[in-house]
Design brief:
Layout (H helix, E strand, L loop, with lengths): L18 E6 L2 E6 L2 E6 L12 E4 L5 E6 L4 E2 L1 H9 L3 E5 L6 E3 L9 H11 L1 H16 L8 H23 L18 H24 L15 H8 L2 H16 L6 H16 L1 H12 L23
Parallel strand pairs: 1-5, 2-6, 5-7
Antiparallel strand pairs: 2-3, 3-4, 7-8
Helix pairs in contact: 2-3, 3-4, 4-7, 5-6, 5-7, 5-8, 5-9, 7-8
Length: 309
């Protein structure tokens, strides 16, 4: 391992003091003289986020590098990133897919331990689910019955579909989805399926970046990505609908597949609305310790409500 500049080869900057994510695409991530550099020749007109140039990457002060399409990475770069606890995630353009993410291995287990503590007790698991639904509905949810919450969601999302279709001027005949033949659905329904996948990828990036545990969901239960699905659903009523119905409207003007239109629109919207950083904030918010719940009562915890799952 070369010493690098400023003698920072052994620097260990806490993740809490680092910048969060660095987005790179259409270039080569490599090491020269012990320093991480990213060389790109594709300008913004070619779809890249950076102008052509040779950029030195402050890997000691970044928690994760998101490497987009048209990029390559050397073995030395992987070794340098691992040495400094900086994760490298291979993503689709704009974060609409997450292909792989080496373990971030953050310097603190506080958030993951908090997730486990909240998930392991029925009462606190329900409180986190209520916080998530409150974020989605924009109001405090009083019920503590998960079945009631899911029933409330069905009615609200159905109306949200109708309003979004009206806003974008897209014909809407209801949600129809045949898992055995997904391409048999009409364009708005196909677009909704593809848009949900893009937002799930953004949520997966957020979960990987925070070092939380994908399998431990508070609303979803069986999937190995349950917590990812929980976090993605927080933006189901706005981001997913804007991506899907906007792409469905655009499909009548462009001779492209609906999947490609959705990906392009999602990538642009992710950047403009800071979707991934926003989902990271959601994770921190719903897992944050609270002395009182949303009804003003003392929040139940393992010491006061030991009921196991």
């Amino acid at each position: 391992m070369l010493l690098g500049r400023l003698g920072l080869d052994t620097a260990r900057v806490p993740h809490g003091d680092r910048h969060g994510l660095l987005w790179l695409d259409r270039g080569r991530l490599e090491v020269e003289d012990g320093c991480l550099r990213f060389v790109t020749r594709a300008g913004p007109e070619g779809g890249a986020t950076l102008a052509p140039g040779d950029y030195q990457i402050p890997h000691q002060s970044v928690s994760a590098v998101l490497l987009g399409p048209g990029s390559s990475v050397t073995h030395d770069a992987l070794r340098l990133l691992a040495r400094h606890g900086c994760a490298l995630c291979a993503i689709g353009e704009g974060g609409v897919r997450l292909y792989t993410a080496p373990p971030l291995m953050p310097d603190t287990s506080a958030l993951a331990r908090r997730q486990v503590e909240l998930w392991a007790v029925k009462a606190t698991r329900m409180e986190v689910a209520r916080r998530m639904y409150a974020l989605r509905f924009g109001e405090i949810v009083r019920t503590r019955d998960i079945a009631v919450l899911r029933g409330m969601e069905v009615g609200r999302i159905k109306r949200a579909y109708e309003l979004a279709a009206e806003r974008f001027g897209v014909p809407w005949r209801g949600r129809r989805y045949d898992r055995a033949n997904p391409v048999d659905a009409d364009l708005p329904n196909q677009a909704l399926n593809h848009a949900a996948v893009t937002v799930q990828a953004a949520a997966a990036i957020a979960v990987a970046s925070t070092g939380t545990i994908p399998q431990l969901g508070f609303i979803h239960e069986d999937s190995g990505q349950s917590f990812v699905l929980d976090i993605a659903d927080v933006r189901r009523h706005d981001v997913v609908l804007d991506i899907a119905f906007g792409a469905a409207k655009e499909a009548g003007k462009r001779p492209e597949s609906i999947d490609r239109l959705v990906r392009r629109r999602a990538a642009e919207l992710f950047r403009r609305r800071d979707v991934v950083p926003g989902l990271i904030d959601v994770i921190k918010s719903v897992l944050a310790p609270r002395e009182q719940d949303d009804d003003g009562k003392a929040e139940a915890g393992p010491a006061t409500d030991p009921e196991p799952t």
